[in-house]
Amino acid sequence: MATVKMIILQNGRLLDPVTGVDTEGDLWMEDGVIVSPREEIPENSQVFDVRGKWIVPGLIDMHVHLREPGEEYKETIKSGTMAAAAGGFTAVACMPNTTPVNDCASVTQFILETAAREGSARVYPVGAISKGSKGAGLAEYGELKEAGAVAVTDDGLPVFDSQLMRRAMEYAGSHDLLVMSHSEEIALSRNGSMNEGVVSTRLGLRGIPVAAEAIMVYREIALAELTGQRTHIAHVSTAAAAELIAQAKARGVRITAETTPHYFTLTEEAVGDYDTNAKMNPPLRTEADRQAIRKGLQDGTFDAITTDHAPHSVLEKELEFDQAANGIIGLETSLALALALVRDGVIDALRMVELMSSAPARILKVAGGTIASGSVADVTVVDPGKKFVFTKESILSKGKNSPFLDWELQGKAVLTVMGGRITHNELL
Question: For 229, which of 68, 169, 197, 239 could close a Cys bridge (C-beta 3.0–4.6 Å)?
């Protein structure tokens, strides 16, 4: 008879937004599934005393760039998911702006096969809205869905043609695929490299106005209302967009939205003396915008915290500011920065777990997001008091492009379990 293999977490704070659980207790995992505790611990079990730590559903990041295929010098599925596991993530959804673009079954299958072979987290491919993300004709959504895609987006680029976006929503809806919008009015943002305002004027950099985001968010809301299809607004950075989303939700529009740690932690001042690690799209905004983003996380305007993890090499980042690539890494800092919101009283612990696990699972319609008995054994143990300095040497991602380098952060994933397999362990 085969020996029973279990992972048992003892004396932790169990947090589950789906069931409303917030209590001290134990969690048992057997054969990749969460099971009810028994009277006796079976032989061959791995037992961890996690007193003083949180036991939460595995974190899910629904917006990352893994760069493979095509730009493996920036990141690979292997390195990206190792970084994810270290950050407490058991699953990530990867954007389609690879080389080639993920607009067909073969690329989706490649991603899934590579992740199954080399991944330390579940990888959910997101297909392109348009062929080659060129904004001309729609990709084949039925083929993408059958191959394993969970959503479609031209992330990195907006869909310029409103009729094409309408058709995308209708077509994706017929295949139960989520449409994710990169909301940017290029006519306003073109050649801009940071937020338009006093700081950009002082630095002599061309700015990107708030309206560049707000106009396109308004369009997506109007099209979602017209089609009745669910639509997700990516990486929201402005108070104006947050207000539009809140109003749409109040009307019953099928809109969800995400923001990122850099928008609720930093402002345009982080650009400092042309620090390209503080360059991303949309750009860092004002303190008023930052406060509005924090309020939106508190009041339900935002459904998810994502990272928009965008690794680059020095070839793309060590350039003049206006020439450098947009994007920062985020998988290994997201949890600590979100925990700062809890310490500041902006959100409570259950809300944080909802934003980083339960809600992304619900929006993408994927497994996880709960630690209820019978659920998949995707579990993260968080030490909310653990302090660490985020250094280049400590980063598992191939990308080192972070504005949080050398920050002392508090709160860390100390154990990550994906499908009953330990993918990251600092409890040894």
Answer: 169
